[in-house]
Amino acid sequence: MCRHLAYVGPAEPLGELLVTPPHGLYRQSWAPRHQRYGTVNADGFGVGWYAEGDPVPARYRRAGPIWADQSFADLARVVRTGALLAAVRDATLAGADAEAAAAPFAAGTWLFSHNGAVAGWPGSLAPVAATLPPGELLSLEARNDSALVWALVLARLRAGDDEGRAMAETVLEVAAAAPASRLNLLLTNGSTVTATTWGDTLWYRSRPGGGTVVASEPYDDDPHWQEVPDRTLLAASGTDVRLTPLKEPGDTPPADAFVSAKEPRT
């Protein structure tokens, strides 16, 4: 049910993060090692990245499998960036939205991806969707669960919530409406990465020389990858990572919510 990855740090070619690693996102499209739901991520892919001096990211998305795109490897070899978000997709339900349904979704400086599925979609989220202004519903980029989850996150961001609060509150709202949902969300603004674990895997690694990678699964066998516990909010910069336990719907958060997870570089 999808694999995704985000990175912030020193500029790197896209391919060094997505294609070259032995178990990179490119390979995860047909041979993921930690995927719990689904086996092949061939229903589309996308990558969003930031050019130096431009806060608004570019995107490259396609409806088919990443390995079938003859141009992507060349693009990934020469394009360099200090921040990206990329995903390969295993669709929850068949649909007609083609590449519009492929992450990353974007608005302003933000890129977003959802690894998982909303249980009982679409009926389970009908009451939640009704809380959004009609114009936002009519402007959804695609008619899938991930696009609606992104609209809920974006509404909170535009209302002034910081990234962590917007992501956490959206997860709790959707989980309360559709309790069996899997809601691993990933967001970047080009400087930081915010993510949630709720029903699927997530790992992070601080890279030698600077930079942080957050991904559904490790792209190599380096022992410095750290698995993020389920029901956790992750906030990362290029130099450190913070982990916050997420409360279940109806619970109160722990007093010592933020836990430092800064990792020594080797």
UniProtKB/TrEMBL annotation:
It holds the Pfam family GATase_4. It comes from the Bacteria. Residues 242-266 are annotated as: Disordered. GO terms for biological process: ergothioneine biosynthetic process. One of its GO terms (molecular function) is hydrolase activity, acting on carbon-nitrogen (but not peptide) bonds, in linear amides. Keywords: Glutamine amidotransferase, Hydrolase. It catalyses: gamma-L-glutamyl-hercynylcysteine S-oxide + H2O = S-(hercyn-2-yl)-L-cysteine S-oxide + L-glutamate. Pathway: Amino-acid biosynthesis; ergothioneine biosynthesis. CDD domains: YafJ. The keyword Hydrolase applies. Its EC number is 3.5.1.118. Catalyzes the hydrolysis of the gamma-glutamyl amide bond of hercynyl-gamma-L-glutamyl-L-cysteine sulfoxide to produce hercynylcysteine sulfoxide, a step in the biosynthesis pathway of ergothioneine. PANTHER family: GAMMA-GLUTAMYL-HERCYNYLCYSTEINE SULFOXIDE HYDROLASE, GLUTAMINE AMIDOTRANSFERASE DUG3-RELATED. HAMAP family: EgtC. NCBIfam families: ergothioneine biosynthesis protein EgtC (TIGR03442). This is Gamma-glutamyl-hercynylcysteine sulfoxide hydrolase. It comes from Streptomyces tendae.
